[in-house]
User: Which sequence fits this backbone?
């Protein structure tokens, strides 16, 4: 985006770009028309066209001189949005007066504290004046994308500095005109201009010194003529006259806003007219105008780069042009900082890029259509290029894919064949390993059962210490539930105290039965039987019934926490077997406990292992 601020003495060119919300100043150029010899309009046009070509023919935004336009706040009664454009159109006819030229206007809603009213910041200008300024620069229709006024550009540039002040007066002194803008709450509420600028001061100095205007301009910019040894009282009177006109222009607004006073405002100066040494100091002292240099921004410097911090407007901003347009809702970046001397150009660029808090555009309708046509063409060209690149990439990818598909298939077939062979070998090896394990599992089972039985006997022997009871029977559950009640145990012989002597002799016969059965179906012996891996122990507790049950409870609580047992509980009476010798028992004082072992990992047959008969049949085949 190229912003153009064309003055009578200087022309400022500012090239900026917005890259994903980041605005950067790329190039800036300030042309002194007299020094460069660009006096005629043709020379200026040729120079501008050369710059446009050198900088890539970017879209152009133009700042319109303020004296050609009118900007002020209109207060209207509450009305529907459909009636707003009509009311403002009627007001612009009153403000513009009788004219043969068409009036181009734009407006945006502003905040108001008056109940039942609404305010709009309105800017209008004669279409004839706008086209005359466009013709002076010989700008092509499709290159011009935005036209705004100096006052609106100053508002955008000031808001970009990030300086927070509710009451501000902005003064721009150009060569021919001084522009004044009043802001309340960051929004423009008043704008005016008067034809007393830098050239007015230079001509007055030339008359006082009796020299040419060029010499007076040089003297004004290099010498402090308002204070010190080179001070000229007559020149001070000229500056006082300029200050008086400035205050007179603002006096009318302050009269209509009695609650506001000039000393409540911050005053900021911009433009080449204020570059005279000692001018701002003199105005703050004797001139009665507290003008300060243009704010450099929150970081204290004049950067050439700003970051977009656009926020959604708290109220819907309405923008209607005489030719008809849509709505806008973007606000300026509060941290933007214009370069010194390029405040108007920078504000114009922000306006064109959509960063203005009060977007006001005076672009004629035919130029607007031409710009929209250029945007559509650019979008179409970009889309076509994207499609072309995508098709080229897709075609290259498909070609590469088709060239490599044969080799990929061949490689995949080789991998599949190798994987199939590996799976078959793995299945064969797994079958052999599982068959080996199935053959060894009965041995592991009996070994585990033997270890658990020895540990259980040790636990039972320890529980007998210092207790008033005795064990009359210990048997594994499989033997206990498989033997009939007529079986005679070893307890009838009382010549030994070794607990192993009370083990039933049927254990060996049971093991023999287990060893003769199919090792791969060890769990089959438990079908239809309550037997689990573990022991059955019968004990006799003398004394009364309550005391006996208390002792039995203590024994269960002693054995149950042991990691050896999964469960320790009293055997139901319907599952009991009368295997103990009546001579060593006390009627109604004998109890039977079922001790279930916790470790049963070798009891179940592993998944995927086929019975031995099936493996034999397969091997024979």
Assistant:
């Amino acid at each position: 985006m190229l912003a153009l601020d064309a003055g009578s003495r200087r022309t400022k060119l500012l090239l900026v770009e917005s890259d994903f919300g980041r605005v950067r100043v790329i190039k800036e150029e300030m042309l002194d028309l007299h020094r460069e010899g660009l006096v005629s309009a043709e020379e200026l046009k040729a120079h501008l066209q050369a710059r446009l070509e050198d900088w890539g023919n970017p879209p152009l935004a133009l700042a319109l001189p303020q004296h050609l336009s009118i900007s002020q706040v209109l207060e209207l009664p509450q009305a529907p949005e459909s009636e707003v454009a009509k009311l403002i159109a009627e007001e612009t006819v009153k403000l513009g007066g009788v004219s043969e030229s068409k009036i181009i206007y734009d407006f945006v809603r502003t905040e108001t504290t008056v109940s039942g009213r609404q305010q709009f910041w309105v800017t209008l200008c004669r279409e004839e004046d706008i086209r005359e300024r466009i013709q002076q620069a010989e700008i092509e229709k499709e290159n011009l994308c935005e036209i705004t006024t100096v006052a609106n550009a100053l508002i955008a540039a000031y808001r970009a500095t990030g300086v927070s002040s509710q009451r501000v007066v902005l003064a721009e002194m150009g060569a021919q005109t001084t522009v004044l803008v009043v802001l309340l709450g960051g929004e423009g509420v008043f704008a005016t201009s008067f034809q007393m600028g830098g050239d007015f001061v230079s001509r007055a100095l030339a008359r006082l010194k009796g020299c040419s205007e060029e010499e007076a301009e040089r003297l004004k910019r290099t010498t402090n003529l308002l204070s010190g040894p080179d001070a000229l009282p007559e020149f001070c009177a000229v500056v006082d006259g300029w200050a008086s006109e400035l205050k007179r222009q603002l006096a009318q607004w302050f009269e209509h806003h009695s609650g506001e006073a000039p000393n409540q405002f911050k005053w900021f100066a911009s433009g080449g007219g204020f570059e005279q040494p000692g001018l701002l100091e003199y105005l703050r002292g004797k001139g009665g105008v507290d003008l300060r240099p243009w704010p450099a921004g929150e970081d204290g410097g004049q950067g050439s780069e700003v970051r977009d911090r656009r926020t959604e407007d708290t109220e819907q901003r309405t923008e209607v042009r005489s030719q008809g347009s849509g709505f806008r809702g973007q606000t300026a970046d509060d941290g933007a900082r214009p370069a010194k001397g390029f405040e108007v150009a920078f504000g114009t660029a922000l306006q064109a890029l959509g960063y203005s808090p009060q977007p006001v555009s005076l672009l004629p309708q035919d130029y607007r259509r031409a710009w929209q046509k250029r945007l559509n063409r650019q979008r179409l060209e970009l889309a076509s290029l994207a499609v072309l690149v995508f098709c080229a990439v897709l075609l290259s990818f498909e070609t590469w894919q088709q060239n490599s598909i044969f080799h990929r298939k061949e490689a995949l077939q080789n991998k599949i064949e190798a994987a199939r062979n590996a799976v078959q070998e793995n299945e064969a090896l797994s079958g052999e390993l599982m068959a080996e394990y199935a053959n060894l599992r009965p041995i592991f089972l009996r070994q585990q059962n033997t270890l658990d039985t020895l540990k259980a006997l040790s636990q039972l022997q320890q529980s007998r210490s210092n207790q008033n009871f005795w064990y009359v029977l210990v048997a594994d559950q499989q033997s206990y539930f498989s033997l009939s009640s007529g079986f005679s145990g070893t307890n009838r012989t009382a010549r030994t105290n070794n607990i192993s002597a009370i083990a039933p002799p049927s254990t060996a016969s049971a093991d023999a039965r287990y060893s003769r059965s199919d090792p791969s179906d060890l769990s089959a012996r438990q079908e239809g039987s309550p037997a689990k891996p573990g022991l059955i122990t019968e004990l006799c507790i003398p004394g009364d019934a309550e005391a006996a049950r208390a002792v039995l409870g203590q024994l269960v609580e002693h054995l149950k926490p042991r990691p050896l047992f999964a469960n320790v509980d009293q055997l139901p009476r319907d599952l009991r077997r009368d295997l103990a010798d009546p001579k060593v028992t006390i009627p109604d004082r004998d109890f039977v406990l079922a001790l279930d072992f916790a470790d049963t990992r070798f009891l179940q047959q592993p998944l995927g292992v086929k019975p031995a008969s099936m493996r034999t049949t397969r091997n024979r085949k």
